[in-house]
Amino acid sequence: MATIEIHTLRAVEALRHAGRAAAATLATVAARLAPGVRADQIDQWVREDTARRGGRPSQLNYHGFPASVCVSRNHVVCHGIPTAKEVLADGDIVNVDVTTELGGYHGDTSATFIVGRSSPEARHVVDVARRCRDAGIAQVRDGARLGDIGAAIEELARKEGCSVVREYGGHGIGRVMHAAPHVSHVGRRGTGPRLRAGMVFTIEPMVNLGGAAVRLLDDGWTVVTEDGSLSAQFEHTVVVTRNGCEILTPEPEVAMAVAL
After folding, report:
1. CATH number for the domain including 112?
2. What keywords were assigned to this record (predicted)?
3. Average pLDDT of 85-99?
4. What is the pLDDT of residues 170-181, one digit of tens each?
């Protein structure tokens, strides 16, 4: 297993700045979402706002990814490529995943937003996904096990009649966007590496209204639910502390309002 980095106080401060920048960009985009907005417009807004904050979109050209942000609508689980053909419609749900490199460090956050009026099913899966993320975060503390996070997420999703995607998970983050550890959103309590103060990683469960199975489209990036059901995701970057954890990508009030 790859070594999990323990970040210095100076590095955590740099990660805090990057995380807050990413969260602010996400909130700026959230305030502009509405029926008729094209996904490529969201990409442009992310590029402009990230640059205005002195950062760089971490996702742009990452392993060939052609955009600065992932925009995943309805049954798209993750890694949706924002194009002009993807147009938000009334009642859609859409995940916007922003990662900002600032000062050599990365901040990663995402949220799922309801566009216009919504169905009870859409509200349910969005609400469950947010609560699953928060349930995972609540497990994070010095001395806990990595498996505690996935177990808490899976337990809540199952209780609410939803499923959790297994193929994709959270990740360590620092001077590189993806590092050890892999953070599974399913698991067993008391298993996996011990968490230590100074570890930094993302928790970003992908929760489906239907089954957990997913498939990758021919573009090599876009992941969709196998059964076509709605999928929602929320993500924070956190640092483990001696007494729990700190969220490095705090949600500005505008993002909270639009997401619900």
Report:
1. 3.90.230.10
2. Aminopeptidase, Hydrolase, Metal-binding, Protease
3. 97
4. 999 999 999 999
Q: Is 235 annotated as a binding residue?
A: yes
Mean pLDDT, residues 75-100: 98
Q: Is residue 203 within 8 Å of residue 236, measured between CB atoms?
A: yes
Residue 244 lies in a domain: yes
pLDDT at 255 exceeding the cut of 70: no
97 assigned ligand-binding residue: yes
Whether 4 is covered by a domain: the verdict is: no
- Is 86 annotated to bind ligand? no
pLDDT of residue 161: 98
Judge whether 17 is annotated as a binding position.
Answer: no
Total tally of structural domains belonging to the chain: 1
Q: Which of 182, 181, 187, 183 is nearest to 157 (CA)?
A: 187
The answer to whether 108 is annotated as binding is yes
Do the domain assignments include residue 175?
A: yes
The answer to whether the annotation marks 5 as part of a ligand binding site is no
Residue-range definition of the domain harbouring residue 154: 9-259
What are the pLDDT digits (tens) for 128-165?
999 999 999 999 999 999 999 999 999 999 999 999 99
What residue has token string 């590496």? 193
Residue with tokens 């550890």: 181
Position 212 in a domain: yes
